[in-house]
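hey can u run this one w/ SN-glycerol-1-phosphate bound, need the structure tokens asap thx
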Amino acid sequence: MEKILDSIQRNSAAGRKMLAVLLDPDLLACEARTVEMLELLAVHRPDFVFVGGSHTVERSDLLIRRLKAHSNLPVLLFPGNVSQFSPEADALLNLSLLSGRNPDFLIGQHVLAAIEVKRSGIEVLPTAYLLIEGGRCSSVEYISNTRPIPRDKQQIALATAVAGELLGMQLVYLEAGSGALLPVPAELIRCVRQGCGLPLIVGGGIRSEEALETAYRAGADLVVLGNVLESEAQKIAAFVEVRRRCSESGKL
Ligand code: 1GP
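ok here u go:
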């Protein structure tokens, strides 16, 4: 079977846009919402399901088992810390918070998880994770005790992404923070897209079809949606349609 990183690189090179739905393991606390979400994902298929968050209470593997029982969508771990690792996912986004200067989120958590991750044999996606200021203090900012990159500092974002590329990372994730008031600015996405050769993940504060389209048109390859689907799960149908439309025009 094709590796997940290979599929992301192939889609990025072809201009085919991708969509990921971020599910918080704590979603399981509400059975009705979990069932509704799983049923919708089976019909309106994103490319990936991300599982994790800056701060979660429930275990990731319980949600992953539910996902695996209901669909064959690839599940990627999006861990806020080492305790969220589960070998039952298909791949691990090995996030290094390059925008910050907190060694624990640059390398510390990675050392704690390293042997278990290696032994599990899970596919690992080394990812340059950049927090961009999103209009309010995000959970990532608070928990990691780091400062985000200012919204108008495109060149700092680009230099940080390229630093990750030069360290051998394979993906760049521009993150405004879950529930951000303002998504990552289009100009900043465009700048990183043009100056850095890696596939680009963008997320945080994207709640409308217009915002999704803006991110894709600016150069995002993979957009992550979380909060909006937690409150209005049925919107997934419209978002999948935006992905299709932007992919088609991206190929022209
Ligand atoms: C957070 O980028 C994701 O890490 C998704 O953010 O919940 O705001 O969609 P939202």
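The first helix runs from residue 4 to 14. anyway lmk if its weird
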